[in-house]
Queue: 2 jobs
Job 1
Amino acid sequence: MGDDDQQHAGYQIDLGNLTAFDPHHQFSYVPDSREDLVKECIAHGTKLIQAVADALFNLPSTEDASGPIVSLPPPSTKLPREKPLPKPKPPTKWEVFAKKKGIQNRKKDKLVYDEQTSSWKRRHGYDRVNDDNDIPIIEAKMTDEPGVDPFAKRRSEKKQRVDKQEKNRLHNLKEAAKVGALPSHVQLAATALPITGTQAAPRKVSKDELQNVAGMAATSTASGGKFDKKLAGEKPPKHDKKYRKFLPVVEGSGMGSLEKQQSDKILNKLMSKNSHEIFNVGKAVDMYNAKSNKKRRNQQGKSSSTSSKLKVKKSPYKNKSTKKSSTKGKSK
Amino acid sequence: MNTFHLSNSASCLLEVVVLPFFRFFAFHLGLIIEYYIMLHIKTPKSLRAKRAVEKRAPKLVENGKTTLILHGTKTSNVLNDVLTEIYHLKKDNSVKYSRRNDNIRPFESGGETSLEFYSLKTDCSLFVFGSHSKKRPDNLVIGRTYDHHIYDLVEVGVENFKSMKSCSYDKKIAPLIGSKPFFAFIGEGFENVEELKHLKEVLLDLFRGQVVSNLNLAGLDRVYVCTAMSSTKVLFTLCALRLKKSGTTVPRVELVEVGPSMDFVVRRHRLPDESLKKEAMKIAPELIKKKEKNVSKDAIEGKIGKIYVPDQQVGNASLPFTPKGVKRERREAKAKGEDNKHAEKKQKQHDDVSA
């Protein structure tokens, strides 16, 4: 083929993946028999692979027992990762302190020379150097209080140190978990422990209370908790109120027109919400009558004559209408 | 709800840790009970378990992707052969499930939960799911997962399958398991047609094996040849590689068809979300090669580096010794009064430097 060189130049070669891609090839005709097709594909493939091999074998190689080893460049076709990038973990409390002070980490040897026995003993573990429990005699210092057991004191100090270290470790894990950079071998599991707001002793919640709590939370759902998945042994939520109130079919002797009252109540609520100037004539009249009766009684009681003339006569209707309409919105 | 078990002091509970608190409020007859959820740390108890957990953890440079091969409710003979052959090609980094899985439907929204669970269980980020139905005969769904959730899918139909056993060749050139393959993609369809572009990427991901930086040239023996015959059809075949002596250091390449050959007919595909794609393609900033600053190469002199020396600040230089006499002076100055303190201190320092 004459345009072999031209096509050769157009191949896209990715050495990192050992891939050659020919974007210019077109099938102008498809061979009838499958074998011919396959042969043609393989022939074309050979050309591509030859191009890759050219590039590959021209890389600088080092000789090894099993064969020449080349160092491949990183692949150029980017493929997605399978897991998200790990987040860098925040420095621990000690690391922050060490960096600030400029403390370098020094590698410690496993074996340490013990002066007492003049032999090499291990640093940690069985029969170790400077074992705390092996000290037979502790000399008393001037600062020591009498009656204090130095061995017990040492033990308690060690326990304190261990507890402090554990607290620091947990603090470091908490900080890492906040960022999301928990070390890969640590997992968190949630267990619930109730604590009241104050530091007082927590009240023991009774079994009945707990059972009710779930039901109460369920009422906030749209269906009132009817279709919530329940755990084994969980009772359905209790609803002590009646859902609907029905009037008795036959009115008892002591009750007045319950139905009338019910419908009046509903109507009043509806009407009062929608309008502002409703004037309850009956009520206004009653109020006026009561007030005027009271006034008359007072006037009859008093002997002075100037009271009625000099007194400012308030127009009874003006104020009352405004006063009454303002109270209309409130239900009885 | 579990029964809550209370204690007055937290120290009597072993291993319960005060880690990020979550508050739940339960209203009960007007009384507020606050529940703090304490977090409990779980660590592996044996070193072997720890190693297993660390192997699955996200890393900067990842392990090679493993493949899960499984099939659905119904498979045909052809499909069974295809799946077993793919498994044999990728023997060292794939898992094959032999039972049928009825509830897996990769393209439906609810039908991929099982797949995601298996991916999490076996730590596989690629899967090949085979199924056969009247509407979609010999169907193969090749998919990738990101963080054990479906990332993208390609559905292809298999036609004209020719198995490894039917090819006759010299047994010496048979490709070994685990060798790094060559790829040859032929056809403009792989660049122009979106589905074929996607298929090319997925096939590359599926068969390329581990990404290595050092390669032994003696161990190269397989070539995957993919030809785009039309905008929907791709001929896929595996060939063994033979390196023949040629005059130069570069050997002459010869391809012999050994492996399975089949036609992939692209049916459906699902590309990943843009945001997910962006996240998955992220490269760690530590891995990006940084350009060395202030270094240049000269033809005559070789490698040249530039050093910039800042101006020396004589007054602020840190001295190797601390001026010990300052303490007494400072004490006396304090006794004398506040206003004299600064002047005296400055004087003393100058004296020391001159001395």
Job 2
Amino acid sequence: MSDEYPSLLRSERMSLVQLFVPTEVAHDTVHELGELGDVQFKDLNPSVNPFQRSFVGEIRRIDDMARRTRFFDAQIEKEKDVVPVRPLYECAPLLTVGPRSAQTVDELDTTLSQYESKLTTLNESYQTLSERTRELTEARHVLRETAVFFDKAHTQTSNIRSSFDDSATPLLTSHDDREGGYSAGSFDLEFVAGTIERSRVPTFERVLWRVLRGNLYMNHTDIAEPFIDPSTNAETRKNVFIIFAHGDVVLAKIRKVAESMGATIFPIDANADKRADALREVENRLEDLQTVLYNTGIGRRSELVKIGESLRVWQDVVKKEKLIYETLNLFNYDVRRKTLIAEAWVPTRDLTKIQLALRHATEESGTSVPPILHELQTSKTPPTFHRTNKFTEGFQAIMDSYGISAYQEINPGLFAITTFPFLFAVMFGDIGHGFIILIAAVYMILREKAMAKQDNGEIIGQFFYGRYIILMMGLFSIYTGFLYNDLFSKTLHLFHSGWTFPDNSTRGVYTGHTYPFGLDPAWHGATNALVFTNSYKMKMSIVLGVIHMTFALCLQVPNHFRFKRKSDIYTNFIPQMLFLQSIFGYLVLCILYKWSVDWTKSPVSPPSLLNMLITMFLEPGKVDPEKQLYPGQGFVQMVLLGIAGVCVPWLLISKPYLAWREMHKTTGAGYVTLGNGEETAIARHSTDETLEGEEEGNGRAIAEGDEEHEGHDFGDVVIHQIIHTIEFCLGCISHTASYLRLWALSLAHAQLSEVLWSMTLDGRTDPKSIGGWIGLGIMGFMWLNLTIGILCLMEGLSAFLHALRLHWVEGNSKHFEGGGYPFAPLSFAGEGKEA
Amino acid sequence: MEALFFNIDNGFLEGIVRGYKSGILTQNQYANLTQCETLEDFRTQLSATDYGGFLANESLPLSTSTIQEKATQILVDQFNYLRGNAVEPLNKFLEYITYSYMIDNIILLITGTLHERDTHELLERCHPLGVFESMPALCVATTVEELYQSVLVETPLAPYFRDCLSANDLDDLNIEIIRNTVYKAYLEDFHSFCGTLGQPTQDVMQRTLAFEADRRTINITVNSFNTELSKEQRAKLFPTIGRLWPEGNNQLAKADDIDQVRAACETVSEYRTFFNDAGVSSSSAHGNGGIDDLAAASMLEDRFFRMEVFLNKQAFLQQFQYGVFFSYVKLKEQEIRNLTWIAECIAQDAKDRIQDFIPIF
């Protein structure tokens, strides 16, 4: 057991443990471990089908319970008036451990099914009732609408008649002929009336038109209010239609079409009095029905309210139980089926805590047989587990989304805590903007507890998760803002400027006193300000970049020591370091030297460092005296170039050579490599097994057989090293150039904030009239909004992404190995958060 | 060239459909499914596949028809998604796929009405891909003429029906004739439409459709033995495409028993194997020809399905063509048939026949 203090530098030390759990306490043990959330169980029967495992029956039962809770949830959600659902933390917990656990679950099961059947019956009766209400409502509509139609026909008889006279409609004309015309008030024409879904009206009309061979006299009106299906909440809109026709065959045909198109047909009498009677009756029945419906609705609602009180607890229990049984399915039965055997990864540090939990579980369940835990020796790679707190969590997540680091590898997430916000701030440097995001972060941190509980939505949730990153970014941005002397594109005069402008001249005179911290405010507004800051920020980003890469490269060393690959230090680390330093380290030194020289007093003009670097490659050893930075430059550069040149073959050849020598030594000593690693593994395995048989089969991991044995082929080493060399050498150049994004983003940010200021507030800050004040108000509002929206959010996001890239690509490529798999412990808390 | 521009309009959908395709159940998953003891096991097993929790909210006990219905619903949803995102001419192509379901639905409704089944029950049994607006009104018609005039004239199927207006009264034989005439017209139309779509689609689709046509031709021949269908009528029902056309079709039109059918199919090497066992069994037990023909036909049917699956799988080997959409729908349909079969076998405890499904991948 290691006693070192938990740190983020390396992932937690893990142990593989074996648990012997008596069947009686298995459930409670897993429950306890799930509450603890510190144990990752291994699947001991990977070849067994999910439905052939031991606890399928329980899982199936719990699935059914889960379905019931989902049904309740859906019902509650569908209810129009909100049904209060008591949140989980306000409910009394339902105990599912201890000796009575089985009964509790049984009771819960019966309660759930009782509620379900009750609710289903209520739903059904509600459904039938609303169905009948709907029918009656439709009937009422049909009666009313047809009445309107008949009334209209009465008053317009003359019109109808004249129009029928010259009408070409054969059916009506023939009718007209036979009956000898209409007399007002006597309608002998037969008709079909009913309701149909509005979307179907055109099709209905078309089909009827064709079926009746063009002799269609149809009238339809919309029903204003929609009908709502109580079970699905779907809205349907319907139309009342009335079709006039004559002849039984035709009428039967119309009815059939109407029925097949989903219309409802109502018997309507042609007599106005009878219609009025029918309407009255329908209205009476409707009223009765609505009372009953209302009462049923109330009954259903009260049932739902009762369910809502404990629904969350049920859901919680069901979820936990399901998780427990799924975990139990990973276990193995021993021969006599008395105990379950489990294997799990646990952090070595927490072994005692887990022992305690196991004892607690035994006490809870009221039995005297405790589960037995013992550690196993294994050659398997344990999962990677970084113990984070709420501050480091976000930074670790940034690195984990690039890749999970190998077990016990140096963790870049630790260093990201400072480097990440710093590189961000180099791009985002502005006191004001930094302050804004700082305030946002501080607000989120102060309201942490309240915000953690509520559902923040996707976007706010993301920001909330990264609140400590934002806090650090804000602090660092304020710091770099001071360095750049930038406050919403204005400057601060904290100290006396080192420059004076005598007699309104535009040429500054140096007073001989240096501005103590950050950029001299005199540069602000100077005509050559941009030239100066560009050169300054560009060089600074190269310096920072080389420092960051050198640091990342150094992180290899502890890895090489930890994984016992000392030869890698002089086959990989040293040549890489020399290569980087002899080219770019030298460039950084030149930059620093150039900054330290007062070029106004120098006889030569300042040389361009970029050209210097290019000529260093193109014409090694030759330096134009005009452009010389220091004496002896040519020789130094030639030596450095030589070192860099030597490093390439060194890096390329030394590691494969060592591997080859090693191989030669083993074959020379008379050993022969077996065809593949597997055979040896199998051979060893079988001897192991016989041994184990004698030793009663204790102390060996059950699921050990599937370990992959990677064949370290010589060819692989060669290819890998070639790729690595090319990648590193080209990477050095492109990555250094890549750090120039620090300059570009910082420049863009400064320029953007300056443009925003000049376009909104410039010249308005001292209003003289009321109009001026109003203008200031509007513009100030605009400026504030754009500052937050564009400069802080959008620019911040872009700077964030670039900082992310610098860490993932430029930083991690120098040392990160990755390939680990995350520690995923059984935990009830985590599951709760996801849902 | 098609490779250059195909993805502009159809790249997304092809990606989607290939993604869907990788969700089709594999041999392994079928092996797991066939081991299930109950339908609940079946559901648990399916939830580990691409079907996911599609049955999670169904209350127990499950029925095979629910499984089939829900699985079809998934296919329909996927198809509608594809269709909603498609542009011409893919849109038209997808529409053509639905025509075959429309034909099936129409025939189902007419037959149902003839036997005086309940209209609503019939409507529920219709395939959701082939539903069209005025479909319910089909129940009213009593003659083909009326059918055409009142409903079909406004559907895209109208041209296909034009050829069979001569049949006056609707009886079972006539409906069968109508179905085959319409299907023949549909296949020919689809075939020529695919011809307008340019090279890779044309290639893949015409191969699949040719097989479909041959299958119909052989089926019609086999099923018309000992019926009142005359040989001239039979010949009229054969699609004029396919690999058997024209010589094979001519021979089939004159065929009187299954041996002559086999002889007609000799020219196409792929079809030769279909009749191998069938021929042997028919010659070995000549006495009870009726039952034996039935067995041979069902075996033939099975082989046709296998061939269809094979051809549809082939369609996925080529990129930049529409064949994948057609093939996906057909494969998924086969998968649903398989699922239903397995579920049915589980439900009826007929474990010995559970392996009789057609594996896809």
